[in-house]
Amino acid sequence: MNIKFKSIYNIKRESKDVEKKSIPDDFEDYIKDFLEFVEDNETNREYKIKSNSSLVVDCVNHAIQDTFINNNMDNLQEYAQKIAEKLLEEEIKIQDRVKHLSNVKKGSLLQIIIQDNTDFEYLIAKVEHNRYFDQADFSAHEGFSADQKKIWKTCSFKYRTIDENNIVISEIKIYVDTGAKYWADSFLELDALTTDEENTKKAFQSIDKTLTKKIKYKSGIDYSIIRNNFVGYLRKPESIDYDSMIDHILEDYEAVNLDGHELKDLISSLKLLPDQKKFDRQFNAVPSQIRTKIRKIYKVNVGIEMRIQGHINNFDRAIVAGYDERGNRYIKIQTDDDETFNDFYREE
Q1: How many Å apart are CA 5 and CA 31, to the nearest integer?
Q2: What whole-number distance in Å separates Cα of residue 153 and Cα of residue 174?
Q3: Other beta carbons less than 10 A from residue 135's beta carbon
Q4: Would you tell me the crossing angle of helices 220-234 and 196-211 to the nearest 10 degrees?
Q5: CB burial of residue 27 (10 Å; 0-12, 13-18, 19+)
Q6: What is the DSSP letter of 185?
Q7: pLDDT higher than 70, residue 161
């Protein structure tokens, strides 16, 4: 891997300008860690170009063409500055829209061009910089922490060589630490390869089939609790980090009947699904796509059915199965509806 170009710009919204920063030799370790993060990170999403004339795509294409076809690197800094200025412009707009709710995270824009044999990559990342004070004169500075490296957002444009005069984009992947849409939509001006609707539908269907296959017939109660927890995640229109969702639901899950090996096998199978079923590991949940899929109807007795319409809080306490003293099986359901309760309540 050969780094052909690198630049860092501070994005200064208060003064409405960008500041090019020199890159000292000891900053190479930071860049190395950054490249390892991008290479190893699977929590990303594939995108496609809306228009080759959009500013960032045009600058990136020209930078790659100039570097590897024309052997001319004179204009790379100009392209990098235009991209930094575009980010500044979009962050000023978005901050103005959300100023009463939150703040767009401050940071610097890191840009790197890499060659790996006949493959090329243009990396763009928004990274955290911190405010610190010089020990000598206590003057304020902004820079990067050697210990805590926070990468807010990245975009990787990968290219492959067709022949000595032609290079084409083979893949575009984006990682964001939040659901901030401006990074892809208005700054990079890219479209997701798979829509949020498709991702939500594919993810839930794949998860549900895997839960059914792996655990439903081994432990119905574990299946019901785990499925309910996934419904809880995907029923809200929020940003989904697929692997984090699985970890949050299952990492500390106290199984009722499953053993440790079965739970570990389930986690491994679920984490393979995005690659197997072709959906992204990052997307924004669209609850309408799974509304009919999350409904479950259970046969209770002749003429009686139990219908679950969505996510249930405290599932393991809301619905409980058990036996009475004569061995009859019962399902006990917690209710907060007075009319329903009174229709069935009898004093002993």
Answers
A1: 12
A2: 7
A3: 6
A4: 170
A5: middle
A6: I
A7: yes
The kind and range of the H/E element at 277 are helix 260-277
Which residues on adjacent β-strands are paired with residue 174?
A: 45, 155
pLDDT, position 145: 53
Whether the model clears a pTM of 0.90, i.e. scores above it, the answer is no
Whether the Cβ atoms of residue 180 and residue 103 lie closer than 8 Å to each other: no
**Phi/psi zone of residue 71: left (φ > 0), alpha (ψ -120 to 50 degrees), beta?**
left
Torsion of CA 74, 77, 79, 80, to 10 degrees: 160
Question: How many alpha carbons lie under 13 Å from residue 49 in its C-beta half-sphere?
Answer: 17
Average pLDDT of the residues of the chain: 89
* pLDDT given at position 277: 95
Whole-number Å distance between alpha carbons of 247 and 52: 38
Q: What is the mean pLDDT of residues 328-335?
A: 93
Sign of CA dihedral 337, 340, 346, 348: negative
The alpha carbons of the chain give a radius of gyration, in whole angstroms, of 26
Q: Supply the DSSP symbol for 288.
A: G
Q: Tokens 């893949």 label which residue?
A: 171
User: Structure tokens of 231?
Assistant: 């419904």
CA distance 187 to 181: 9
Indicate whether 138 pLDDT > 50: no
Write down the pLDDT at residue 163: 85
Quick check: helix, strand or coil at residue 232? Answer: helix
Cα–Cα distance between 34 and 183 in angstroms, integer?
A: 19
Nearest C-alpha neighbor of 46 from the set 177, 162, 184 = 184
Q: How long a stretch of residues is the chain?
A: 348
CB 138 within 8 A of CB 129: no
**Per-residue tokens: 6:** 């690198």
Return the pLDDT at 35. 86
The SS3 call for residue 94 is helix
What the block records as the tokens of 66 is 């100039």
pLDDT, tens digit, for every residue of 38-77?
A: 888 888 899 999 999 999 999 999 999 999 999 999 999 9
pLDDT of residue 287: 94
